[in-house]
UniProtKB/TrEMBL annotation:
The lineage of its organism: Bacteria, Pseudomonadati, Bacteroidota, Sphingobacteriia, Sphingobacteriales. This is NodB homology domain-containing protein. InterPro entries: Glyco_hydro/deAcase_b/a-brl, NODB_dom, Polysacch_Deacetylase. It is found in: Secreted. One of its GO terms (cellular component) is extracellular region. GO terms for biological process: carbohydrate metabolic process. Residues 94-335 form the NodB homology domain. It holds the Pfam family Polysacc_deac_1. CDD domains: CE4_NodB_like_5s_6s. It comes from Mucilaginibacter xinganensis. Gene3D superfamilies: Glycoside hydrolase/deacetylase. Keywords: Signal.
Length: 335
């Protein structure tokens, strides 16, 4: 697609979003939701008070999230992940299941009270990074570095410069440092975090904690105590399991399960692949570790839909209105 085509496509999409908002406000979509049938697992990440795009494109505000919940309650049938797998669907409404990835402390702070207020079930997929001695995921650390760190850094004799999107790019081959690290195990990530901690004093910024801080074991236990909540695993270090050594990936699958089970004193049966990334070896390792529910985003292959353990999920879009999000959720597409 050339530049004029890209501009035209963006303009067309923006116009459609505007028309969708107008149509909702005029009541034209009422019948659309009344007739909607099917099911969808939604994936959220972080919830914050304001400025949801400050560090990444995975957050929405508490106000927007509450608006989602109100819309779900009014128009959809909301079910737990266990009921979704058992296909306990309503035949009269569109069925929605809510999941959260990454284990942010803001999930305990903002999401849990709203779930209890509206009596909505949800599943939270959490890493074991706290057991490794960290209260931040490596990719969120890089986001904080991009926001507050120096314009240039040197890592293992390679120089990186910050681009206009606050990403560190190698001066040698133009590779994004975050993309490079996704293909590595945690040891290299650990070394880089240790090197950069002293020059990135983000922990002094208390107002930014919602954007990176992980749940403590006590918060995980408190979350799990709710009858509306199911806890699942999301790996140990938040590595891309399909890109690291399969032996290391299998170990993460086992250890993250044990970490959470020791905290909540319940069996962990669900696992969400970090970044939605997986392969057949990772699937086999997850099954061997005892997981019964394996959550991706988009399937790698059409054949994956035939695996009773596997389910796709639809990621929330932080750039669009509540009305457009709900419409896209039913359609299963943002196009």
């Amino acid at each position: 697609m050339n530049l004029p085509q890209k501009i035209a496509s963006k303009a067309h999409l923006k116009a459609r979003y505007i028309l969708t908002d107008i149509g909702h406000k005029l009541g034209f979509y009422r019948r659309f939701y009344q007739k909607a049938r099917g099911c969808r697992i939604m994936v959220y990440h972080g919830i914050c008070r304001q400025d949801h795009l400050k560090l990444n494109t995975l957050f929405i505000t508490r106000k927007t999230f509450e608006a989602h919940l109100k819309f779900y309650k009014k128009h959809f049938n909301i079910i737990s992940l266990a009921d979704y797998y058992q296909q306990k669907f309503s035949a009269d409404k569109f069925n929605i299941c809510l999941t959260f990835d990454d284990g942010f402390a803001n999930n305990h702070k903002y999401v849990l009270p709203l779930l209890e207020q509206y009596q909505i079930p949800a599943t939270f997929f959490i890493t074991a990074i706290q057991a490794a001695g960290y209260d931040i995921l490596w990719n969120d650390f890089l986001a904080m570095a991009g926001k507050y760190g120096p314009s240039k850094i040197t890592v293992s004799d390679t120089h990186y410069v910050k681009n206009r999107f606050n990403k560190y790019i190698s001066t040698v081959d133009g590779v994004n440092l975050a993309d490079e690290l996704r293909g590595c195990g945690f040891e290299k990530k650990r070394q880089i975090m240790k090197q950069l901690y002293s020059i990135i004093p983000f922990k002094n910024r208390k107002n930014d904690e919602d954007y990176w801080k992980q749940m403590t074991p006590a918060e995980i236990a408190s979350l799990a105590a709710s009858d509306l909540v199911t806890i699942g695993a999301h790996s140990y270090y938040h590595n891309d399991l399909a890109r690291i050594n399969i032996t290391d990936a299998a170990e993460e699958l086992v250890l993250s399960k044990l970490y959470l089970e020791n905290i909540i004193e319940k069996n962990i049966t669900g696992f969400a692949f970090p970044y939605g990334s997986y392969n057949h070896q990772v699937i086999a390792a997850a099954k061997n570790a005892g997981y019964k529910q394996l959550l991706a985003t988009d399937f790698n292959s059409p054949d994956d839909k035939d695996d009773p353990f596997m389910r796709e999920r639809f990621t929330v879009n932080p750039f669009i209105s509540v009305f457009n999000q709900m419409c896209a959720t039913v359609k299963g597409s943002y196009e």
